[in-house]
Amino acid sequence: MITEYEWRMRTAVRRRPAWVGAQCIYPSRLKKMAQKYLYRLAILLSVVFSLWMPIMFQKTENYADIEVPPVQGFQVRQVGDVTYAKPDHLIYETVVFTYEQLQRGKMLLLDESHPLPEGVLPPNTASIAKYGNGMVPIHSLNIKSGRETIDALKALFSVLKSEGYEGIYVYQGTTTASEQYQRLIQDMRMHMKNHIPEEARAKVLNQAEMPGMGEMMQEHTVELRLIPNGSGKPEENSLEASRTGQALLQYAWRYGFVRSDPKWPYRFRYVGKAHATAMTYLDLNLADYLEWLHQKGVIAISSGGQLQYFILCQPINEERTAFEIPEGAQYEASYDNTGYAIVACTL
After folding, report:
1. Where are any strands of DSSP class E within the chain?
2. Beta bridge partners of 331
3. Which pLDDT tens digit goes with each residue over 89-111?
């Protein structure tokens, strides 16, 4: 069938009888034979190609038989003093924690993928210069941190000073979103003195977090830097490169401090002695340690054959979460910002 327009174009060349605006056009006998032979030729070529293709493209490997190694995540150090079972010889009592109580804990994961949860109370900070009683060296008088963190800093710096290690300062403490923004501007101006704007911007974004994000928003993280006498500027070398830095790393976890994220080598998070000991023994950063806790649920740490720390982890059940805690143990609970609650017990 053809349209009336096509029919009229045909009749303009050769006159044909017209009826109801359209006309049936039958192809010629020669054309039908040509189409028939082309169809048979196409079938013959497809059969030949299908037989010839396995010869040209030989299969070298059977991918179904290849053993694909499992995806390896973080590596956990094997430690004889760490077990993953609930001790049977202890007597337990049930303790219930509310979501509000858990949010004030030390184990809150804060990074680009885990922002500060809504409704979290602002950090309860104090001036390190004032509350530290002059025992904690600071880079600036306006640096603040949580009181529990400052107490741990006093103990840490006391032992470092007694061993003859000095030149370590608290370079940064708890910051607000506006303070983070001001620091971005200052860092950008500083880098633009020696770099083009694109390079300066890349350096700033690699060394700082966006305003309102990151673990410096809470009261348990401080930045510790080595500052040579009279320079006022921190050293850019790694802490492992100097004896003073090595001493800081050696003592920090014994007083509850860990480096929570490899991206920020000068940041130390106060997580308490139980978690700091577990993370150091297992050689895990904070994010990997939390994932390991999710898998195991229980971590028991012994020292000299005696149970020293007992750590429990389980998903949060609505607004309240109950834990079976050893009677008489000191404990502290925390939310981890990924749907789990954690309780660290000291025996």
Report:
1. 82-83, 92-98, 125-127, 144-146, 168-172, 221-226, 257-258, 267-270, 298-303, 306-315, 320-326, 330-335, 340-346
2. 345
3. 899 999 999 988 898 899 999 98
